[in-house]
Amino acid sequence: MIETPRFHLAGEGGLLVELGSRIDPALSALARALAARLEEWPEVKEAAPSYASVLVLYDPLATTMESLRGRITAIWATLDPGEFLLSRTIILPVAYGGQHGPDLEAVADATGFSAEEVMRRHSATLYLVYLIGFTPGFPYLGGLPPELATPRLSTPRTLVPAGSVGIAGSQTGVYSLESPGGWRLIGRTPTLLFDPRRDPPSLLRAGDRLRFHPLPSSDFSLFAEASARGERTWEEER
Asked: Tell me: the pLDDT tens digits for 33-89?
């Protein structure tokens, strides 16, 4: 933890508040606490928490960067990250391997485990959603077992299907939309992580916990059709 935040210009109407330089659940909770407080201010358009920073987008006609810096410094000691340490736990079905996870065998070879063991270890872990980014609804997850860490692909794919679950270094994540990407794909969820018909459109939010539940590949299409109809294909652990 740091005693005071550091501030960086982020273009006109943007201020980056740096809280630390490591991936840590406590820093993540502090970032979410600060973002929640800032979004109560009318001159702030959006406050987006990241691993250990908050990007503040504000109305430059309503305030100045210097004013925001002063006010953030003033409220710093009043933040309570404790209320942001626990949140929902979402369970996503995932079909591992085969056409849904074309890199599962490569990850198994790289780690020395069987494909079944990679799947078991990956799905047995409770992950923390540190932030939503890259594309709308894409969760960056912390907590990947270190023995499953695998480098990104040397050449990214030009198109990764929505719902693909991948590993990149010490992180795992889920592609919320079709997009290019270089993460190693080990499975795919039929659940829509971003759906403009929902309110809010993103299923996950920073601070959520996430667990993957293995889904037989034969059931993938059935779940995908249900999700496309707007039906709930995920569970909330209570």
From this structure: 999 999 999 999 999 999 999 999 999 999 999 999 999 999 998 888 776 666 799
Residue 148 CA to residue 167 CA, distance in Å, equals: 8
CA distance 155 to 158: 9
For residues 186 and 99, what is the distance between their CA atoms, to the nearest angstrom?
Answer: 9
Q: What is the pTM assigned to this prediction?
A: 0.87
DSSP for 140-200 reads EEE---GGG-BPPPSS-EEEE-TTEEEEEBTEEEE--SSEEE-SEEEEE--S-SB-TTSSS
- CA separation for the pair 198, 200 (Å, rounded): 5
User: Please, which residues bridge with residue 83 across strands?
Assistant: none
CA–CA separation, 194 and 163 (whole Å): 10
Q: Do both 121 and 156 map to the same domain? A: yes
By CB neighbour count within 10 A (0-12 exposed, 13-18 middle, 19+ buried), where does 165 fall? buried
Strands (E), 50-155: 53-58, 89-96, 127-132, 139-142
Residues 10 and 98 in one domain: no
Q: How many domains does the chain have?
A: 2
For 17, the enclosing helix (H) or strand (E) is strand 14-18
Gyration radius of the chain's alpha carbons = 19
